Amino acid sequence: MTLLEVRNLEVTYGGGAAAVRGVDLSLAAGRKLGVAGESGCGKSTLALALLRLLPSGTRVGGEILLDGEDVLTMRWGRVRAVRWAGASIVFQGAMHSLNAVHRVGDQIAEPILLHRKAATAAVARKRTGELLEHVGLPASRASAYPHELSGGQRQRVMIAMALACDPRLVIADEPTTALDVMIQAQILRLIGQLVTEQDVGLVMISHDLSVLADTCDRLAVMYAGRVVEEGPAREVYEDALHPYARALSAAFPRVGDPTSRFAPRGLPGDPPDPSDLPSGCVFHPRCAAALETCASRDPESRDAGGDRRAACVHVEPTDARSGTP
Ligand SMILES: Nc1ncnc2c1ncn2[C@@H]1O[C@H](COP(=O)(O)OP(=O)(O)OP(=O)(O)O)[C@@H](O)[C@H]1O
Is there a domain that residue 135 lies in? Predict the structure, then answer.
């Protein structure tokens, strides 16, 4: 059953240019979708839009159906009810997301008390202890302040908080960026394991395609506000169809994988400024495979077969392959 369906999402910050341009995504209950792309391609904007967390004055169009209900047209009372309980978000850098002057246990208990009207302080405390143990911390750490925990422990607290109200969807925006590599791997394993155990859907955002390929079932690669390729995680990572997705895979080879075909390589040039997008395919100025037509033709996202889609002139649509007119 479809848990999340994003249709033609457009986000434009006040007075600026579109940061997300016509994004379509879907996620089945209990599955894990990775969203990758370079800095500025619109990943965080997409994450914030899913929970209506964008600053006021931002124009948002399209549909975001969570269990069939459009988040974008909900009344604010309903949006508040959906946050934490329907969908929750783990941000990068837990030090900034946790309140420095409150004990972490009280911060985990807060959404429980808010959303479960019948929950007493004692019930919330008990649940907080269980959640902390669930994410690999002793229940006694509930009385700690954020500065008394390591970066990895704080991120575990954020994950406990995100799971506190048994959401159907967890959105994790660069959840391990501020952590060292060993702790990153632990936290990613933990998120993957918890969403599988609890049948929660996961949207995980990262610039690192190799991390997402290891954690997620499906991958969407964004460039300049659009999804340029989407498909089964392993196939997109190992055999991308879109030249940008290929370049991103090459930039993030799997650490320590002797069979990796790729040497780490940067992608030349920078992503375009949303207020000054190139004509045609917006990736063409950086694309090693660009044809003359790419400067004037903006390719639609095409069904490439095998549950894959990509927006590139080089991608042969399935109907063409099968000879269907
Ligand atoms: N509050 C804001 N007001 C105006 N423009 C914004 C705002 N937040 C982001 N943008 C712009 O929207 C575009 C997309 O930014 P976004 O943060 O979504 O990208 P990202 O892929 O998440 O990048 P990063 O990985 O660096 O977080 C960028 O051009 C950015 O400058």
Answer: no
Cα(78)–Cα(115) distance, integer angstroms: 12
Residue nearest to atom 26 of ligand 1 (CA): 39
| Residue 140 lies inside a defined structural domain of this protein | no
Domain assignment of residue 268, yes or no? yes
Residue 255, beta-bridge partner list = none
Lining residues, ligand 1, CB within 6 Å? 13, 16, 19, 37, 39-45, 55, 207, 274
Q: How confident is the model at residue 246 (pLDDT cuts 50, 70, 90)?
A: very high
Report which residue type is found at 139: A
Amino acid at 272: P
User: Residue 94: pLDDT band by 50, 70, 90 thresholds?
Assistant: low
Q: Does position 318 have pLDDT exceeding 70, yes or no?
A: no
Domain that holds residue 51: 2-86+165-321
46 Cα: distance to centroid of ligand 1 (angstroms): 10
- Report the number of distinct structural domains present in the chain: 1
Pocket test of ligand 1: the residue of 13, 89, 92, 203 to mutate, having most ligand atoms within 8 Å of its CB, is 13
Residue 152 lies in a domain: no
**Cβ count near 321 (within 10 Å):** 10
